[in-house]
Amino acid sequence: MKQEQGIIFKTLDEFRKVELEDIVHFFGAGLSSRMPKRDFVDMLGAYLIEKPKEWLGRMLERDLRLLERLVDAGPETPLFLDYPDYPSVLETVRLVHSDTSDPNFRKLWIGRELYDIVAPHIVDVLAHGEESGQFDCERAALGYLNLYGVLTLKEFFKRMLEFQAYEGRKDPVAFMTELCESPVMKLCRFDSGKHRYVSAPSIFDPQEILTGRKKYADVKNIKIFSPLEALEAGSGSPLFVFGLNTPTGRELVAMLQELGYKGDDLVREEHDIWMNSQRAMDEESTEAIFQAVTRKQDSLASFESFNACMQTVAAYANSLPKWLLRGHSPDEVNYLKVILQSEEDPIRDLSVNDPLLGLFVPPVPGHTPCPCGSGLLYRNCHGKRLN
After folding, report:
1. What angle (nearest 5°) sits at the alpha carbon of residue 238, between those of residues 236 and 239?
2. Cα torsion at 242, 244, 247, 250 (round to 10°)?
3. Nearest CA to 321 among 253, 232, 250, 236?
4. What are 280's strand-pairing partners?
5. Average of pLDDT values for 263-282?
6. HSE value, Cβ hemisphere, 13 Å, CA-based, for 282
7. What's the rounded Cα separation, in Å, for the pair 275 and 45?
8. What is the CA radius of gyration of the chain?
9. How far apart are CA 118 and CA 113, in angstroms?
10. Which long-range contacts (CB under 8 A, 24 or more apart) does 374-380 make?
11. Rounded CA separation 80/99 (Å)
12. Do the Cβ atoms of 362 and 310 come closer than 8 Å?
C-alpha cells in the first residue's frame, strides 16, 4: 500500500493548490481549502485510496466506461484510442497514464496502484449508475447541451425538470439537488458577466457561441426538444450524434456504409459530421463536414455518384439543430428559401460571408458549374471558400 500511496500522492503533489481544490470539488472529498497544500495532498490521496466506491460514483459515465476498458485490459496494458473532442477527467487529473506523442491516436493505460484500488468496484458502480437513473440523467443533461450548445442556467434547469417529470423517479427538489452536484454541472457551468450558463463539454469557448448568435438575431426562442431527443443526443459519450433516425439521417448512414464505413469507424464518421456541422464557422470546419466522402472519392465510379454522396451529407447537416440557431436547424429557419426568393441577394453573395449558409451548396470538382446556379465554375464561386 505504501507504494500505491506514494505514486498517487506524487501525482497529486504536482498540481497547484488551486487545481487541487478543483479536483476535491469534482470528487466531493469535502476538504477545507484553508489547510496547507501538504495536508491537502495527504487527505485527498487518502480519500482516493480508501473510498474508491464513493468518488467513482461521482464521475461521468464516459470516464467510468473508459476506466472499465482499462481495467479489462489489465494493469500497465495500453489501449490505443482516437483523440476525443474533450479529454476525460481521468486523463486531466492524471489518474491514468497517457502518451500523446502520436498525433493519430493516444495511448492510455492504468497503473497497478490504481488498478488494485478500482478493479473490485468498477462493475458495481456502473450497475448502480444504470439502475439508479444516474446515467439517464447525465445523458439527458449532455443531450440538451449538445442540442443547444449553450443554455442559460434557468433554461437548462427548465429542460431538466421536464426530463424529471418524464422519468418520474424523484421529487423535483431531490432531483435538482442531485443535478446541482452532478459532474455535468461541475464541468460545464460558466459565468459570463452577470449571467450564468451551461455549455456542451466539447465547446472550448462558449462566449464564441453567444457572440455568434447575434448574427441570427431573428432566432430569439430556443427550440423545444423532448426528453427522448435529449437522451438520443447525449448517449454514446464522447461520440455524440443526433438525427440518424430521420430520413436524411438514414440516407447518410446507408451512404456511409456503402462507402465501406462500419463499426467504430462508422460511429466516428457520424459523430464528426454532426460536430463539424456545429463548428462550421470557418473554412476548415466547413470542409471537414464532407471528409467522409472526399477520402473515399477514388472508390466512386463517377462524378454523379460523388455529387450524390456530397448532397446526402449536406442534406443531413442542414437538418441538424445548430448551436448558433438556438437548437433550430437551417432548414427550419428557412434561410435557403428566403435567399432563393430574393433576386437582389443571391446565395452566392450571402454565403461568401456566412459559412453556415454555405452548407446549402456542397463542394463539387472545381472545373464543373457551381450547383448554386450562379453560372460560374465551382472553383470561382463557392469553391473559393472551401478549397
Report:
1. 65
2. 160
3. 232
4. none
5. 87
6. 3
7. 37
8. 23
9. 9
10. 374/346, 374/348, 376/348
11. 10
12. yes
Copy the grid coordinates of residue 81: 484510442
- Residue 235: per-residue pLDDT: 95
Nearest to 359 by CA among 367, 370, 371, 351: 351
Average pLDDT for residues 321-347, to the nearest whole number?
67
Cell digits of residue 281: 464557422
At residue 345, what are phi and psi to the nearest 5 degrees?
-135, 70
Integer Cα distance of 284 and 227 in angstroms: 33
Per-residue pLDDT at 358 exceeds 90: no
Q: What is the DSSP string of 139-190?
A: HHHHHHHHHHSEEEHHHHHHHHHHHHHHH--S-HHHHHHHHHTSHHHHHHEE
Mean residue pLDDT across the chain: 86
Mean pLDDT of 299-315: 90
- Are 234 and 182 contacting, i.e. CB atoms less than 8 angstroms apart? no
| Average pLDDT for 89-107 | 93
Please compute the mean of the pLDDT values over residues 121-128 and round it to a whole number.
97
**pLDDT tens-digit series, residues 221-253:** 899 999 999 999 999 999 999 999 999 999 999
Strand partners, 190: 197
Residue type for position 372? C
